[in-house]
Amino acid sequence: MKNIAYAIAKTLLNGFERHIFLFTEITRSAQQRFEQCQWREIQKAARERTDFYELRVKETLTTLKHDFAIQTLDQALWQSVKQVYIELLSTHPQPELAETFYNSVFCHLFERKYYHNGFIFVESSVGEKFAPKANIYTSFYPEKKGLYNTIEEILTRPNFNIPYKNLKHDINQLIRAFRQQAEKTHFELEQLQFDILDHVFYRNKGAYIIGRVVSPAGETPFIVAILNDEQGHLYIDTLLTDEEHMAVVFGFARAYFFVDCQHPYVLVNFLKGLIPHKTRADLYASIGFHKQGKTQFYRDFLNHLAKSDDQFELAAGIKGMVMSVFTLPSYPYVFKIIKDKFSPTKTVTKQDVKDKYRLVKLHDRVGRMADTMEYSEVAFPKNRFSDELLAELQKVAPSIIRFEDDLIIIEHLYIERRMTPLNIYLANANDEQIEDAMYGYGQAIKQLIAANIFPGDMLLKNFGVTRHGRVIFYDYDEITYMNEVNFRVKPVPVTEEQIYASEPWYTVDPGDMFPEELATFALANPKYRKAFEKHHADLLEASYWQQCQQNVANGIYENVFPYPDHMRFKH
User: Fold this and answer.
1) Most buried of 14, 135, 261, 382, CB within 10 angstroms?
2) Annotated catalytic residue 371
3) 385 in the same domain as 254
4) Is 128 inside any structural domain?
5) d(CA 444, CA 177)
């Protein structure tokens, strides 16, 4: 049996290592795409890479079923497989990722009743017997070469194949910005140390150098954002040292980074030290290992359940026509299930909704669409569900709800970060908050359509406000690509019959959209409309949407920066 256990374990590990090889290959080529302004290829690579994991799981499943004729679970064999697998991971550079891969394959093979630590890695073996160790950053000491020369060395160390346009100007701006922002840093050169990650982070149109400055007064984390002027030169766009701004760069509404680091466990620990409020689940997902993010999240969630006693309840806000949403008050996430039947006004199917969520997972979220974690066969303690919530779930989605002893099993759900629904936020906001929120609401729409996403239902209830005050879209059942929409000017009524018609007197075809109706349906409150029109009156004109549609068709990729415009350097 030991030989068979080894063969199965090795097959699993081979599948994982093929995944890592292909993942690394496409990640490593990010520098070239950035240097050559291959913006379309960047989007394509991001979509492809997101699917790599599931493809490798399917390949491994096929191999196991073919080579070992697996039909039912041999408990002794698979417990042995797990032990052999742990031994194989003892010197592996990505053991925690390999454990998750093992779990994914196992859970496709066998029933939910075997999803416990005897057979899968509910608890990680990493950290118990071993943890990856690697040096992933380089330290620089300005005392030796001077501050200017040290920063020059840091900026040129990635060996970009195109030059900086004006490196001297950029370095001086960095020094000035750092002196203004860094409260914890003394500037006596003999006391400074720069710890710089050896790997550049790439995403969309930006490259990011990340590190920390260590001085007797403490540590100052930082991100240096580098852009390509599309004329063959690089330039420094900003310096971020504030944890809140850095957290937004790594936010849950952003696309995943391309960063060629072979030691993600060590990298995540380093990043966690720079941005403590980010969970390890957030950080794994942000560097492209979204499946590991799911695993880490679920472990954190089980730990939270064990330490809390509050009950799951229906989420605040207007009930959705397609999804039912519940939450745990002590935990900052919401759980979303697809209803069995939708409101008659909704023409989508369950599969359509799943396809929309998949579209969002694969697409550039431009900081305006919440990333979601999709789970199957999730077990919750039944006694933690309020009576109202249990009744609601059994009423709207009985096909995916079942009970096993003291557990409630949900066949399929999505989990995403909890936000305050925009309509609820506005109802309790002062004038300044209303203006900021309506500016953010318009910006969210503009950035989505610039990224080739038509949000569909733009009612305020479908947007949320994060703890950073950002407005995020989170209702995906009507999203589509821009080329699938016909943006029209609403015809002006002329005759008395047209003026007083209770129904549209003009033809409306599927896919037609009248931007001026946004004011009628989403901005009925005059105060909201006034604040919106101050910044985004163009969104009420069909010509604006048509121009954005044309830009997308022409392959024009707008700049969407993960930091405020006022923080950008002047050039």
Assistant:
1) 261
2) yes
3) no
4) no
5) 28
